[in-house]
Protein 1
Amino acid sequence: MSAKSKRSPRGSNSNLTEADEAEMDRIVGRPDSARSRKSAWDEDGGMDNMGFDRPSSARSYREEEEVGRIETTDDLFPTDTSMDEKKKAEEAAPPSGCCGKFLGGIRSMWATRQLQFEESTKNQELYIKTTLRELIVYILFLVILMVLTFGMTSSNMYYYTKVMSELFLDNSFNSNGQTFRSISNLGDYWQFARGPLMDGLYWETWYNNRNVSQDELGFIFYENKLLGVPRIRQLKVKNGSCKVESNFGHVIDDCYGPYASGDEDKSTFGKANGTAWSYQTSEQLDGSGHYGILTRYEGGGYVQKLSTTKAKSLAIVDDLKQNLWLTRGTRAVFTDFTVYNANINLFCVIRLLVEYPATGGALSSWSFRTIKLIRYVSVGDYFVMACECIFILFIIYYIIEEVLEIKKHKVEYFKHFWNVVDILVLVISSVCIAFSIYRTIAVDTMLEKLLENPEEFPDFEFLSFWQMQFNSAVAVAVFFAWVKVFKYISFNKTMTQLSSTLSRCAGDLAGFLVMFCIMFFAFAQLGVLVFGAVIRDFSNFWNAVFTLFRIILGDFDFNSLQDFDKFLGPLYFFCYVFFVFLILLNMFLAIINDTYADVKSDIALQKNDFEMTDYFKKGYQKMMDKLNFKRDKIVDIQKALASADMDNDMVVDFDEWRTELKKRGYADTEIEALFAKYDVDGDRTLDESEQKQMAVELEGQKAKLDEEENEIEKDKEMAQAGRKMGVTVEEFSVLQRRVDRMEHSIGSIVSKIDAVLVKLEAMEKAKLKRRETMAKILDSITEADGLDDEEKRDQMERLVRDELDKWDQDIETNSTGASSGSDRSRTASSRPPSSGYVGDRVYQNRKDSSPV
């Protein structure tokens, strides 16, 4: 290809559109390669990248000529349709100028596959670009979300919780080694309150028995500040909250039923002075409900605040004990306090609960909520705050995107699973943002009140509860955010195996799930009714359900079943494991496994709608074309420099330079710019030094291009070397199945051909037999000339019978797969009387007593 075809005769700043250029190429007969090279030139910026200053208004004489030709092409197609299409294109085109570019940029920010569905289905490259852009933006969103979530937690939370729980739960309060975990009656609580509770809350001496200073008071483990004072709260039920059976009415006078908000005792009792003896509502205490082991408890009750010193707190506890603050009607005792560790900037909101059921005894439970309420202290915290601001911008961006998609697709939008996931993530994220703002304001307010009155009880229970819900909501959002990654990588057939398998077997799984649930819940109900009174794991229906799930996972207590009943326990366990685990559960796995095999076979046989590798290969080829074009351009200039000095005076004047570059298709402005760059003295000639400088720079640019191309080729070779060679196991399995089917088909064809050959061979043998029989009959007729008619008939009959017997024996020998009787009848039926056999005709003549 000549240099002229490589270069566009136009300058780099032409006003022609791509459609005009294509039409111009068709009229002037320019090859496609030249146009592609020209496109690469224009995208690269033409000669501007070499440092040439070309005026934007400049146009070469070839440009003027070709533009003139383009302007006259409208006369070649004087149709109304072309005018209508142009008008529609002009109306659809975005407004020109700065406003148009701004609107186009805004529109491209929310250009998703769903918003560009029609265009992306027709344009494969647009679909790939849109998918990649969405994936990159979403990965940035996911990174920001990860920074936020891990910025809220740290390993110190676990150790902080562990230290505080061991302090209050594992220290014994009597010689029997009882701890808070093993409290069993009303008296045990008072021993715990006077012992481990007081010792854990108030650290007033060092390990050498020296008293701590005034500033060091109120620190647990000398590190954790006790905020305000602890508080004890109890809930009671009134006498008569249950009914005594009439037969025991004269023996039992009092009846205290299980806790219920309607049966709560709100009357004043005991000393009748102070909050410990007078009921306060949940609104007065600004409290919240709590779920214990037995039931849910309201936020009101009888409350007693402790003091900031151990001595005063002990006096308060002793006073409550002496005046029987805990009674038969007591159903729950809460011990609440909050500590703060400034070293790690963490709060620990502690609640110790003892429940007294109507059966008697006691059940202890606890809650240690280690949370980070003061968010912005260190440099890392402020970095997290910056990420939170970016996260809010991302949420606004995605909300606008979903609104646009809903506006476009209407109800159809909600029929797609990934759209529902998008809505779920956005809703959870929006709620978390709102709560984060509320939490920051609420914590500042509470700490401000606490500093004003340090002997008040700071109720962080409500805030800590919702902080834990906030953490759980963020965890759910992160989970679905990671699941959503499948939405953006499902363009490849390998990535769709999971979703295709689940969607294809969903119907079978749903139908079988009904049978599984019937059997599963039947065993759960059976376990509750049989073992519920003795075994805790079957004490109620939900415990039984989770126990059966644990059995499926291999976590079970067989000894408790066997100890309850030597026969029913093992029988129940065996039946459940056999029917549910060995049969039903494996049926689930069989359905999924069978569907997965079908999906893999189908995916292996089908071709991708598009391959991402093809897109990158195309980009690689485009980059190589640009580098090759630049190299060709430099080579052209080098050749022009070598041959421009026509008079061999070692000086290249402008006319010689212009003539040489004109031959190679360069425009006047390009020639002028290139010449002016190296004509340092401005004498319109290039002397030997200036020519040498040009040659050195051109050679340097060429070497740089070669280096770039070598690096690209090296990266490509490394990628290909790292790629797995050969066929995969799935592809080999598919090929093996296809070969097996082909062998089976070929074997069937071969067997049929063998059967045809056997029949042809039998027919050939029959022909030979007929010839032999005919010859024998003719010979016998010739030999019987001297005999009378009776002897001739007997001899002929004997001969014919012998031949028929031999014929039948041969048929039986050659037959395959049939019985001898059926072969004989089939042989007889295959020889009708008029078949033309010589023996048949002779035998028929003998029966008719006609001479041969």
Protein 2
Amino acid sequence: MTANRNTRAAIRGFATVSMGAIALVLATGEAQAQNVQCRDAGNNPVGTLQPGSDDNAICGNATVNGDSNVAIGNQSTTQGPGNTAVFGSVAIGYSADATSGTSVAIGAVAEATGSSSTALGFGARAAGTESLSLGLVAQAFGNQSITIGASTVANDTSAVAIGRGANATGAFSIVMGDGAASILGDSIVMGRNAAGTNYGSIAIGYASEAGDQSLSVGFISSATGDNASAFGLAATASADYSTALGTQAQSTGDSSVALGFGAVSAGANSLALGANSSAADIDSVALGSAAQALGFNSTTVGAGSRAAQSGTAFGNISNANAFGSLAVGLAAYSANQYDVALGFTSAATGGRSVALGLSATASGIQSVAIGSQGSAPGDVVTTASGARSFAAGANALAAGANSVALGTGASVSVNDAVALGSGSVADRANSVSVGAVGAERQVTNVAAGTVATDAVNLAQLNAVGATANTALANAATAQSTANNALAAATAGGATADQALLAATGAQGTANTAVANAATAQGSANTALANAATAQGTADTALSAANTASANGAYFRANMTGPGPQATGTQSIAMGANSVASGPSSVAIGDGARAVAGQSVSIGAGNAASGNGAVAIGDPNTATGQGAVAMGRNNTATGQGAVALGNQSTANGASAVAMGDGANAGAAGSVAIGQGAVATRAGQVSLGSTGSTYTMSGINSAASRAAQQGALSLVTSDAAGNLATTVVDLTELSTLGNRMTLAEGRIDTGMRRANGGIAAAMALGGTTIPGDMNVAVSFNLSTYRGEQGYSGAAVAKVSDHVWVSGGFAGSTVKGSAGGRVGMTFGW
């Protein structure tokens, strides 16, 4: 066969144009079918046009079976399996096959076997209905599936794979990126080597990985737990329902949350918030940079803070080091089980000990220290270092076992002693001191003693003095009688007998008088001795009164009603109707009650009814081991519960309520601020619904200079207030599902519209350059995130007739289409 480019001839009713060695012939007879078929130089038809086929274009050693088809290229085919006819198909390229209606195969060995499918590229295959395969060996097997890129695969309905080697397995999955892959349906995978390993996975970022209905966003991020979420560089959420947000954040416990650079939430239901924070056990909470909640049900708030199992720490570098311990304040430290430290640098280290106040220290077992550090040079902190000791007041010291020091600078250095009042010193065991050497005090309003071990008052001493004075008067009278008798016996003028008789009578009288005098003298001596003793005691009391008056010190008590009752071993009760019935308990105040071991109740109407419980104020109730209630009308119920403020309530083991009207109503819950409410176990609530939070130094130069690592953001309204609406997990999940459904419908509608526009933009006519007889063109477009594509072929069949075919579509499901047309010109 030879080429004759411009030769025209009429042969048996055909208009013929030669194209190299093959001529394209258009039948012109009215009764003949309107097919266009290439012929060789000998005017022989090239290719196979099956009988009954109309309106087709065939060129090369191709096969056409059906109507309105185009087959161009050696061994290209437009016919169905078993030589069945097809309609509107296009096969262009060596061995290209379009074997289903309105399908398009362009490229060597390309296959479009699905209805209305399109395959473009060498070895490309579109097997699903309305599928699109674009690229070297790209394969679209699912209905409405799309593959774009070399070696891409879309295996299921509406699956999309874009990028070299991308693999979208599962219906409605979308995979974009070299080597990216999805395993099951409804997955979205974007990024080189990203992977969606289960149903509904979303993985975005290089080498990111997402599991069942999980979301992973970020470079090498991983959300492999069911319904897990990971956001950030190398963020990991490996447990079910876990969330990790921030560079290298790790959430490895079920339903746990880790927020911030390097944050780790390892326990179920745990929360770690802040750079390098750690919530290591079940229901633990760590808030703040490098905060560590190390044990079950532990809570720590503040940079560098630390809490052990069931412990609670509030404040930067605060440390609740043991089970059930509480540390509140900057650098506050509670070392052993159930220790409580409240205040800046306060320390409770004795076990079940309590330290309240600036730098207060309670180092003895079950000891209590209440007060703050003095400001004068040489001052020491309030310290209760003896076992079961109690120190209250600035710089008070209770160093002996079972000792009590009440007042600024009060000091007890021995066991079982009490020092009451500012500067009082108790340095003898089993003693009570109300002053110090050189700083003595009066004790006023003391009732008369009734038994040998009772104290006596000044009225009793005055009665002893009166008795002694009466005895002295009687002795003087007896002496006078004896002297008178002797004078009568020696008087002159009487006879001897008379004198003797008189003398004898006088002697008897004298003897009687002497005996009476001796008796009186003995009584007087005894009375004098007692009086001297009483006088010495009175002088001592007077001296103490004078000294106290000179120094301006005093100790007063004005009590009516039933007296105090101290029935517990080593207990102390002070105040009308006060009761201290527990061992080593202290009850001070009208109606105060301390009814358990080592309990302390200070204030009118207070009640401390748990071992080591503390109730201070008017009136408060502390019920439970180690419970603390301070302020007015506060209630702390449960082991280790703490209620501080006015009308606050802490109801549950280790619950903490701080602030007027604060309410912590469950175990381990924390409510801080006026009206704050925490109702779930382990919940932390800051402020009430009307609260605002101000951090004046957050934008300072120092804050900016100290900032390191990725930033975490908390959203608020325009005024800077955090959100206050409370919803539970069920409501949030329901709302999320409804929003997801609505967003899906909106996204689908928008994608269809945008896809249609993108396809229209890509669709364009194809012109034949000068001196050419066949032209093939491809177009790509993009519009608002959707990609359009089109391809077209045009062949010149005579000087005035052109035949063309084309297709267009987009990345939106069901948007592919095609066309075939003819052009006449003169």
Protein 3
Amino acid sequence: MVVRGEAGIGKTLLVRRVLDEQAGSGVRIFRGACAPMSSATAYSGLGATVTAALSQSANSQFPSAAAARAWSMQTLAGVLDDGKRSTVLLVEDVHWADWSTLDLLAHLTRNLPERRLLVLLTWRDETVEPDRLTWLGEVLRTPGLVDLPLRRLTEQETLRQLRALQPNCTAETIATVYGRSAGNPYLNVELIRGDLTVPASLRQLLLARLQALSPTARAVVAATGSLARALDDDDLLAAADSAADAVREACESGLVIRDSEVGCAARHPVIAEVAYDQLLSSERRDLHARLAKHLSERIGGDTTASVIAEVAEQYRRANDRDAAFSWALMAARAAEKEYAFAEAGHWFSVASSLWRPSDLADDRVPPRLVLAERAASLLSGAGRHVEALALLDAAVTDRDTEVGTLAALLMRGTLRGLTDDLAGAMADLQRARRLVSAGDDRTLGQVYISHAMMLRGYAHTAETAEAAQAALEHATKAGDTRTIGQARSMLGAVAAIEGRLDKAFEEAVAGLKIARDLAEPEDLAMAAMHLTFVHGLRNDTDQVVAVADTIQSELRHLMVNEHWVEGILESNAVYNLYLAGRWDEALDRDDNKGRLPSGPAFKDSQLALIHLARGNLQKAVELMHGQEVFAVDDQPQDKSDYAETMALVRLVQHRPREALALVLDSAELSHDTEDEPMAGSLLCIGLEAAVAAQSADGFDRLVALYRRAVSGFAAGALAAVVDGERSRIRGTPDPAAWLTAAQEWASLGRPYWEAQARLRAAEALLAQRRQTGARGRATAELETARQIADQLGAEPLLSRIQALAKIARVHLDDSATEHHERRGATADPQSLLTERERQVLALVAAGRTNREIGATLYMSPKTASVHVTHILEKLGVQSRVQAAAEAVRLDLTDHPESST
């Protein structure tokens, strides 16, 4: 639950009162809070009780930084997991939180187990950093999360609040308070208890309260906001430069609340902010210097990253360069040891900015660029790509002789590639290549694989293959397992594009295995993307879906935030389900996976195809809103995906010339590139548009541009469609071509295209009705097409079939279908089931629930439920018990292994 609102609206009072009511009930309550200066202190919002478990990490070994990070998330989540008791984690003022705290909270909200755990957050709705607003937006999309925005009180509610405080206050007084507070509850209380003539803003009112204190007491109040925790008496004395009277003055004023058990804190966080804002620059530096000295003297030999970061932050704000540099290095290394990568990156960045050549006198101090590259690497690993790139842009100079330049160039090239700056990325890689020693095979392999990765998305197959092969050779010599895996995965993608599917499968599987062994999420995501691509070309929908589900589950374990490639995995799964006619299963995946708050999802284009086929034009158009961001000329495949759906939208809207223009524009871009052979579906749509627009020139141009699209496992079907559409545009529809297309589509398991081809065949046959048997054959084709369209729920296609039948006076319900008998009750029931459905059925027979089936086969419980529904329909049974009996009869009771 997120409780949101402006300062003074009552967030803290509400959540604390709710938790106080649980006192003595047996509920475990963990309390934490964030502060204005806590953004660089790892896990500052969680409290020592929760984070103490991370001290066990010192001797742990992990295959990758991501695996270590996943361990820390699981460890902290485990502290909150008590199957016997209910637990509440309260974190206040999350808008100030550090990124490790935010990552854990995001992980907890997305992975709430089936146990009694409440994560309760407060958030102040004021100006915050854009990336934190993005975080909030992502969290608020989490299913099951309760968003509780608090509003200001009405005048009537203000009356009730104030009468509870002062029963005798007059209506005139209440009206005056409300007129000045506008219903802010905290301001109401301050005004009714004080002078009604004071300024009406909360900050101005608190400033007036502060003016009554001595300067030293005001510094004490300001100090309460300088650490990410409550202060103890010694902390306050240090802030007051040992002036105990000033500490007492601050506490007796009511602006600082002193609790012997919890510690000392400002009565309201805004009080500390206002007090700090009023200090002069020199007063702030002096305050931080006193606190830094005090805190550093208290540190023992074995301390946490957050404690070290407290000292580093105080010295940094005190402008003590030497001390800030030393403590920043210590804070960075301590945070890295605790797998708090964003905070480690921050402190390495601070150290880099403070570095001086004289620091090299200490052998333990790395060179400036080494610090900057390490900071960028850690920030990038925490998903802070833009921040990491800005850091390196400022750090890298034109001098190739500076120590660390090569590594910094490689990292900056990678970051530029992630931010779509191909020219900048290639320039960095070329410069890095010149700096590599001839015998440094490890670095050469890394340069070449980075080169291959940059080119892969821009239709440069030959260059990609050359770079990936060179990377593989150098990495093999150096024994660099990670680069070997990346290169093999990349070579698998190249082999798939070239039509060498067996080789593609071999390399993609090898790359995925290495990525899994190393637990590298970036490699895992890319290898899975390549493998789903290969499975799709092999027409293996079950395996496309299995890989997408399995790898997304593994990525969720290794990463806090969603990897952008997950959107492509989802898109591949949805599109292949669409092709296979498994539309309900595809639509079941229409959730928030792959959809960022700031933009659309890759899979929306594919989902729109299904909605178009089912007659929901409005939904399709909604899904395509924003998809134009993918339709860029330097990404031909993405532009083809966009054109495929939008051309169909235009056809449905009876705008065939616009549809044809979209397809031709994409065809011009893809012609003679690696994307041309992948454009079979787009070719079919474009030909239909050309016929509808009666554009013979457009038809011929499209066939010429997409000549290589008539290839692969669907070559026979595509060639027949070209012949069939050519006969239509010439005005002499050829039933033979469409019958061939229907048979080919049927053999490939593409029911929607089969039904469309049978409709076209029926149209052509009815045009030849004088020929013996033509009408009967047309009737059979229409009946088969009707059955398929009905099963798919393809209402527009079904309407066209029924309209043709009505015009031709064909009675579909009475027709015989011997020529094209569909698989039905007389067929072997086992043959009706896909491999995935047979696996699900075996688990149903074993008595597994949908959740258990999902866990075994790496799918969501909802997807498992859809599979079970389809199985019951195909077997013609009504219950899971009856399905289990069928599984025994069909000898499908062996428990399936989870597959990829």
